[in-house]
Amino acid sequence: MRHGDDALPGWYRTAAAASWRFLVIVAAAGALLWALVHLRVVVLPIIVALLISTLLLPVVRWLKARGAPDALAAAGAMLGAFLLIAAIGTAVAPSIGDQFGELRPRAEDGLREAGDVLAEPPFNLSETEIQDQIDDGIARLRENSGPLARGVTSGAVILGEVLTGLLVALLLTFFFLKDGERMWGYLLRFTGRGREHANELGTRVYAALSGYVRGIALVGLVDALLIGLALVIIGVPLVVPIMVITFFAAFVPLIGAFLAGLVAVLIALVSGGVLDAALVLGAIILVQQVEGHLLYPILMGRTVHLHPAAIVVALAAGGILGGIVGVFLAVPVAGVVSVVLDYVKAEPPPESPLVDEDEANAPRESSRSASAENSAERS
């Protein structure tokens, strides 16, 4: 007769053991998240430097292949990127500065115009109720841009932290590009017998992250150019600001494309009426089809792919935990987690701490016994 824990069913003991282990994991994750938030002045520059290094690494390798020293290759790649950004900013800054001030009023007018359209046949909705809801929504957006604004309005972006973070990010980017392989080799010394697995997993994570950042940047650039071309042909104003929004919206999959398209449609509705808005909507749908069936398979074929449901959950969690910074980092972090899980699944499963060795081997032994009995009956 069994006493104590042995008297409990196996499923009950397994559930209890799994429950407290799950609570420990949640507590550890919460403590880690708390530490990351309070060390954001250090953590965010590290993440930014890592992402920038994925973009500049091909240039550094190209320069090294032509005989440039490590330091000169890293500095040259960073200087070239700075000059390119400065040139683009100088070319489009005057247009953006003049037009961005008109963007929000035009979008608000588009919302009111959409309400007028819904109040007319064939919709015949209540015009007063629609306009009240639209005015209330616009007022709330003006007062508080929602949970996503916390990442911008909190102390994380006061001037001192921004300047410190920018300086740290620039220095780390230089050292990642110059001594990245040696730094990674030094970190592997702490992995002990798991060095081979740690190296393979780190390589896969960095490759997936590199592919994602480069791919999403190219996808955003092509989307912005195609939508900008469509807006010019249709005759919609504020083309350059909408292109800029479309480019950065690509870094927030699903939600970003929807918001950028909504802004374009609303501005087209105000400037040209329902027909222009419908044409812009059609152009956006066409561009999204090209993106989904052509750009993503070509530009992001080697990177990680996430189900849309996983992307939505990651974006929601990132917005709640980290504000707008969390939204931008949500999908890359989810991609890294996906790569880690894929690697773990490919490896032999470890010994389960929840199931006794005898219980784990019981199904195999019973299967072998059944096979032996079947063989004896046949003979």
Q: Any chance you could write out the topology, listing elements then pairs?
A:
Layout: H1 10-38, H2 40-65, H3 70-119, H4 127-143, H5 150-153, H6 159-188, H7 195-234, H8 239-249, H9 255-272, H10 274-299, H11 308-346, H12 357-378
Subcellular location: Cell membrane
Region (Disordered): 347-379
Family: Belongs to the autoinducer-2 exporter (AI-2E) (TC 2.A.86) family.
- Number of domain modules: 1
Tell me the distance between the termini: 41 Å
Low-confidence runs of at least 5 consecutive residues = 146-157, 349-374
The helix/strand series, from N terminus to C terminus, equals HHHHHHHHHHHH
Number of helices: 12
**Overall spatial form:** globular
Percent of residues in helical segments? over 70%
Mean of all residue-level pLDDT scores: 77
* Rg (CA only): 27 Å
Residues in β-strands, percent: under 5%
The total strand number stands at 0
Overall SS class: mainly alpha
Main sheet attributes: strand count, strand direction, barrel closure: none
Q: If you had to describe this structure to a student in words, what would you say it looks like?
A:
Pfam families: AI-2E_transport (PF01594). The chain crosses the membrane at residues 12-36, 42-60, 72-96, 156-177, 224-252, 258-287, 308-341. Residues 368-379 have a biased composition (Low complexity). It is built from twelve helices and no strands. With 379 residues, the protein is mainly alpha-helical. It has one domain. It is globular. The two termini are 41 Å apart. Residues 146-157 and 349-374 have low confidence and may be disordered.
